[in-house]
């Protein structure tokens, strides 16, 4: 048995046809001390892992709507079961779109209001730090993390937005510069149960100052802390 | 049976594509307003009757073809 402190978190990274950021996610998780376990979209069973990352890209070419086809892949059925059992799931960019299409996260992602693909660093405000994905952040902290998407305009109707506000499910908001026109400046949300999070910015591209910002590492390392804590609780 | 599904952005939902199209049409001198851009999906559906085809396609729309949060859809059955 390993103690929580020495436990090496195992994190599945799902690759779909058209995924692009799976390898960066694997590298970033490895750099933060985790063991990334690649999962192919056709795999029906998830390996034994403490968390799952659904990476960015253009799964199945973004045909129909971004994430609409990927959500029915065999791997996503395993992810849905994992999430239903309380497992930690982080969706980044296309992964966020997939989780919304799958109904694991509220709202949906639409084409950017500008109709232009945006690729730049943006500032994000951390709204909550009592979650497995933001525990290393301080309340109200501003993070610099890049976005790169054409369909990142999060949308929820008024009822949904007030519901999310009431339950503090909006974890990250664009701070001053909203790159896609998302409602309520939403950049990242968490499910009601607090174990599934999605965000449009790419924390895996911002894990070292050499990459422009190390702030993304705070989110990923928070998740790894949570995996270690859960493992320690089982010992 | 040939079936067409028309998927549209719901009323009240911002449609930047529609706005861009409208702006272009105006520049070309056309007098238009409220352009909305949706999508058409043509299908060949195996079914015993028109009702059965409609029911099947309705399920397809719910599960995959339309996102009920932002889109409405219309099913057209052809002979």
Task: Characterize the structure shown.
The complex is a heterodimer of chains A (235) and B (79). Chain A is of the alpha/beta class. Chain A has one domain (10-234): 3-Layer(aba) Sandwich (Rossmann fold). Helices cover 24% and strands 25% of the residues of chain A. Chain A has five helices and eleven strands; from the N terminus they run βαββαβαββββαβββα. In chain A, strands 2-1-3-4-11-10-9-6-7 form a nine-stranded mixed β-sheet, with helices on both faces. In chain A, β3 (51-54), α2 and β4 (88-92) form a beta-alpha-beta unit. The longest helix of chain A is centred in the last third of the chain and has 19 residues, at 216-234. Chain A is globular and about 45 Å long. The termini of chain A are close together. In chain A, 54% of the residues are buried. The mean pLDDT of chain A is 96. Chain B has one domain (2-77): Mth169, Chain: A (2-Layer Sandwich). The relative contact order of chain B is 0.35. The radius of gyration of chain B is 16 Å and the shape is elongated. Chain B is built from two helices and three strands; from the N terminus they run βαβαβ. The longest helix of chain B has 16 residues, at 50-65. The model of chain B has no long low-confidence stretch (mean pLDDT 95). Chain B has helices spanning 16-27, 50-65, and strands at residues 2-9, 39-44, 71-77. With 79 residues, chain B is of the alpha+beta class. The interface between A and B is medium-sized, with 17 and 10 residues.
């Amino acid at each position: 048995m390993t103690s929580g402190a020495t436990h090496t978190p195992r994190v599945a990274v799902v690759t779909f046809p058209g995924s692009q950021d799976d390898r960066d996610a694997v590298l970033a998780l490895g750099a933060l001390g985790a063991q990334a376990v690649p999962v192919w979209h056709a795999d029906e069973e998830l390996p034994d892992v403490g968390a799952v990352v659904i990476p960015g890209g253009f799964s199945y070419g973004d045909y129909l709507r971004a994430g609409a086809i990927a959500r029915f892949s065999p791997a996503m059925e395993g992810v849905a079961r994992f999430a239903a059992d309380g497992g930690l799931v982080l969706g980044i960019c296309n992964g966020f779109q997939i989780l919304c299409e799958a109904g694991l996260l509220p709202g949906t992602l639409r084409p950017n209001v500008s109709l232009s693909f945006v690729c730049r660093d943006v500032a994000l405000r951390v709204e909550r730090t009592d979650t497995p994905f933001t525990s290393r952040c301080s309340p109200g902290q501003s993070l610099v993390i890049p976005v790169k998407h054409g369909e990142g305009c999060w949308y929820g109707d008024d009822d949904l937005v007030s519901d999310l506000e009431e339950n503090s499910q909006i974890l990250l908001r664009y701070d001053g510069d909203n790159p896609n026109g998302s409602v309520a400046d939403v950049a990242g949300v968490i499910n009601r149960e607090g174990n599934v999070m999605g965000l449009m910015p790419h924390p895996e591209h911002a894990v070292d100052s050499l990459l422009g910002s190390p702030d993304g590492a705070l989110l990923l390392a928070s998740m790894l802390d949570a995996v270690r804590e859960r493992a320690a609780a089982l010992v | 049976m040939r079936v067409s599904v028309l998927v549209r952005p719901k009323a009240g939902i911002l449609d930047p594509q529609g706005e861009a199209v409208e702006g272009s049409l105006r520049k070309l001198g056309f007098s238009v307003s409220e352009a909305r851009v949706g999508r058409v999906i043509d299908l060949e559906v195996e079914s015993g009757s028109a009702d059965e085809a409609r029911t099947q396609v309705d399920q397809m729309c719910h599960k995959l073809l339309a996102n009920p949060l932002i889109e409405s859809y219309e099913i057209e059955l052809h002979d």
